[in-house]
Input
Amino acid sequence: MKWLRRGVGLLVVLLLIGAAAWWYLARDQRAPSTPVQREADAAALVDPARIERGKYLATVGDCAACHTARGGQPYAGGRSLATPFGDVPAPNITPDADTGIGQWSFDDFWAALHLGKGRHGQLLYPVFSYTSFTRVTRDDALSIFAYLKSLPPVNQPAQPTGLEFPYNVRSSLVAWRALYFKPGVYQPDPAQSPQWNRGAYLVQGLGHCNECHAPRDSLGGIEQNQHLTGGQIPQLDWYAPDLSTRSGGGLEGWSAQDVIDLLKTGQSSKGSAFGPMADVVRLSTQHMTDADLQAVATYLQALPPRAPAAPVAFPQAASHEQGGKLYAKHCADCHGDNGQGVAGIYPPLDGNTSVTGPTSINAIRSVLLGGFAPATAANPRPYSMPPFAQQLSDEDVAAVVSYVRQSWSNKASAVAPVEVSRSRHTPVD
Amino acid sequence: MIRPPYRRSSLRAAVALLAFCSAAAALAAAAPDTLEQRVAACTSCHGARGEGSPDGVLAPRLAGKPAGYLLQQLEYFQSGQRRHAPMEYVVRQLSQPYLRQIAEYFAAQDLPYHRWPQPAVSAEVLRRGEQVVLHGDPARAVPSCVSCHGDKLTGFEPMMPGLVGLSSGYISNQLVSWRTHTRAAEGPYCMGVVANRMRESDIAAVSAWLASHAPAADMHPQPAAAQTTPLPGWCVMGHSEVNP
Output
């Protein structure tokens, strides 16, 4: 019987360890406010200055981009966000009592933004970027909440989620959160300037830049040491570049002014915003104050240099001559014979990291889709690029993209027609 | 003879200045400050002045269409009420005031119309097409085309598009788009109702007759005041009933 007692004892110990781990990971970290605090929060919600500040912060956080369906009411939700694990519809965050956040207290809102937990304690799917928003201060969160509460309520029920098993089991998030989520408000670094700290706060927190500009692993998580090092955006199939402006960085050679120009106007002397970044500029960053833009630029300029990639001698594409002819015919009028572009209008291609980036997907899709730079207050009538999907074959696009990636000072790999074929879908939302 | 050095340096400066100016001119020439240059994403398919793609199907003519109609279509591509992925992508980043300028640019282009080659359909089909265009299909409560698009079929300012000068393929694509909800409108939704009531064979007949119809002497949309015939009661611009 000794073996039985020992076996049961071991089982009990294992169960206890398991239960402790479960409690540790799943414990409700909500610390409800005191009644005094709750009263103060409620009073703050109707302060017009705070509502105005909240509007600005909600714009910086680009909340409306996800929480608005195409052609729908702002913040009323309904936009379906595609993830590799299934589609998640963004909820209604207008103050409608039945379908929105009308019955939410600030404690509820804070739990969502800071802890990634819903009103009933349920774990939220991290397509809602609480991995970044947890850095937002309580005071800023209160302002955003005040603004959302001031919006006209819209009655729009939530759409069902389209997640597949096992991702539709919310408790599976316990493990995910243990791996990738560390709650905590941004802590200023006293060794850095206030401007750097403001930039870090905006980039790491509300701006949630890292959610696109970092690689995601097979579970959709981002490793801590990959901060802003660039990555392919799941489902959208654009490459969000590394944001270091120093040696080996994805924005190598970008000045602070270049960063500010891109975020404010949609284009800079180094390149234009396109794809999802054009949305970000149009809806969010063009509205940021000059001081905040300067802070973001200061922070990005201070990101560390990246280890230079081992020099690889890429063999020249067999299609180089053909690519050159296509370039002269279709591209040179605007981008120049030597890929120099036209200052303030057409981006240069020589030395442009969007062209030479770790993958060729941005260059391929830009050629296929063309399109306008975002219309912004500073650039209300942007110039545009013709879409070439209708005109050029996979072979032609591969030839011209390879040519651009391997001309002037550009030294990158050639592109195969099959890569073009894979990128021929046109995003509509 | 040795020239004084200052003359050589001033000559050099003059040459440098000239080179700089011509370089600047070359750069400026690369990007004229015109709307035509700005909207290269539109004109590569629709033609520099909106004359449409050579086949008239891939990209329709925009030149001379009512500005209000063009703006509305651009906004529908933004909101997804009209679906065509390349158009939806191209207009995505633009503001309403800029869309209006673009619509007005193409509306203002005054270009001659050319007749499309006679579609390969029988005389009987063309007669049926003419019948529906001019008189509708009363048995199915389909109003005539002319009752809304005008007796000259050139449309009305500011919202009603003309139907002549378009290819048969483009017109039939649009009628089918109304039926499949890849083309829609907030109101009036009359065309959705009409297209759904039409016989499929009549879509082909109407498209063929419209494309082969000789362009009017004056192809401009008629002024709004010229729209004297009342639209069908259930299909008034801005107020439509889906189930009349």
Observations:
- Confidence is low (pLDDT under 50) at residues 1-9, 13-29, 236-244 of chain B.
